[in-house]
Amino acid sequence: MGTGKRTKEDKKRFLSGTSLAVKVWYIIGGVFLLFTIMFSISALVLKERSIRDYEIRESETILNSMSGSITANIENYKDISRLVMLNKQVTAFLRAPAEEVGAGLKNDTIYGINDIFMVSDYVDSVFIFRSDNHYVTTGKGLYHIDYDLMEDETWHAHIKEREGGAAISLNGNGAVYRANGNQLLTIGRDIYDIYLQKPVGLLLVNISTGMLKSATESQKGSKVCIVSEDGTLLAGDKSVSEYFTSDMAIRYTMVHKSVRGNKNVRMISSIRVPDTPIIVMCASNASAQSIPVETTAVMLLLFVTFVVSISFAAVFISRNITHPIYTLSAEMEKTKEAGWLKKIDAEMPRNELSMLKESYNSIIDYLNDLFTRLIDKEKSVQKAEMRVLHEQIKPHFLYNSLETISFMALDAGAKDVHSALETLGSFYRNFLSKGNREIPLSREISIIKDYLALQKLRYGDIINDEYDISEDTLDIKIPKLILQPLVENSIYHGIRLTGEPGTIKITSYLEDDDIHIIVRDTGVGMSQDTIDELLGRSETPVEDQNASFGLKGTIERIKYYCDYKDVVRIRSEIGEFTEIELIIPTKLKEEERGNV
């Protein structure tokens, strides 16, 4: 145990006392060794995948070709079998009464069938059964017919459900087979009376496995076979059929299975021929192509490139990294001693260290810019407060003057002028609010109503106002005069520019301890650039500074009041509407609330 502890301490001492260049060489050597191992593994995996992909492509080509050839031949026999149902000798045989069915009629039927199939290869035999079990056949040799099975509804179901169409099976689905054991591919179909449209007989066309054998022989040099859905070999290489599994008969898609422990066979592929009980199989041998020459060349080029690159990087880092790092560290230390944020002016000859220097200088620029913006913002707030103070003139002289003029108008019979002056006096009383910086929402709404009443005297019916104020928000205090600039903007930069009547709607509600106040107008709307400019997302200054004090200045006041949180949202659609939403927390701590 003591030896193990000393070994760990020796390693720590060795690593701490080793120079940076030596450590870099160790790291690069480790990376090179790791890359060599990973490259070798990747090459082997790529080789195996390349071989498998090649085998799959070759197998799919062979299987699709064989399946397509078999399907084409079967479709050809199906088409010929339709002619049998229309042959006059066959229809005469099927319609004849039982007592008239004799050797002559049967021979005529056989001749008619032979005339149809005389140009068709691989047709072993044709059976036509009447409903009374009389039948004719063109087959030569001994056949076994299982009448009991043919009488079973289950046996006949796969033909009956085709309603005159062809059903493919092996050996008549077990009902007709040769005595010598040779397999037959059977095309079965009900024969319908063309006038009554009822089945009057059964047609079984038996095709020899010679057709399947010709399909396997067409794939010279390939190990292929054709089996039934129970794995019985029908044609081709018997050794391939030994790899048959039941799932090959269940799936109609291509199946690929790897074979282990066999040097001559790497993979077995199979596909079931559509609408038939036969499966085509193909074996891929180990002599398949390996990695293509182009891929091998690219991999070797990558390996050589990596070796050259890592060698160059090792020499480059070991010779040039130490001194620049010391220089960079010394410059940073000078900045610390200077006591203010100073950028590094030292020349950094290497790109990596130059990037580090630029990143450090960028941080210094950002911090200096941040300090400048904070100072400018503080100055802007102070200027805004001064402008608000300058606007708060001594109110008593204004009130007395308005009352005097109002009585004079009333004495003169100018009731409309008297009413307008009363509204104006109410507006200014609420407007000035004895210098209070926060007022209840109800008083702010009163200011807006008086303001809009005065604006209607000027613009008439062009302005409509609506209010949806929640009762539980009326007594909540908000910064004074934050809605009037928004309403003014809605009039002068929204509704008035449309040249048509418009509506200003003010809504308020509580949600999650925040009061939401929405001012919506049906004016010309705002562009996204204007919205970004008002919310401070754009560096482009507002062209009209007086207009910006009303709206943008209000936004700045609200942000400052709420400690610059995300409290203002603007939604707009050009030509349709503008909606400004203020979200003001109702439970701001005193230290979080700015001086508005």
Describe this protein's structure.
The chain has 596 residues and is an alpha+beta fold. It has three domains: 20-311, 2-Layer Sandwich (Beta-Lactamase), CATH 3.30.450; 338-391, no CATH class; 436-585, Histidine kinase-like ATPase, C-terminal domain (Heat Shock Protein 90). It contains 18 helices and 19 strands. The chain has helices spanning 2-17, 20-86, 88-95, 103-117, 147-151, 153-160, 210-217, 238-241, 246-250, 293-320, 322-338, 351-391, 395-411, 415-432, 441-459, 484-498, 528-534, 545-561; strands at residues 123-130, 135-137, 143-145, 167-170, 176-178, 184-192, 199-208, 223-228, 233-236, 255-258, 267-272, 278-284, 438-440, 463-469, 477-479, 502-511, 514-521, 568-573, 577-585. It has a five-stranded antiparallel sheet, with helices on both faces. A five-stranded antiparallel sheet has the order 9-8-12-11-10. Helix 2 (20-86) packs antiparallel against helix 10, helix 14 runs antiparallel to helix 15 and helix 16 packs across helix 18. The radius of gyration is 48 Å and the shape is flat. The two termini are 71 Å apart. The model is unreliable at 544-548 (pLDDT under 50).
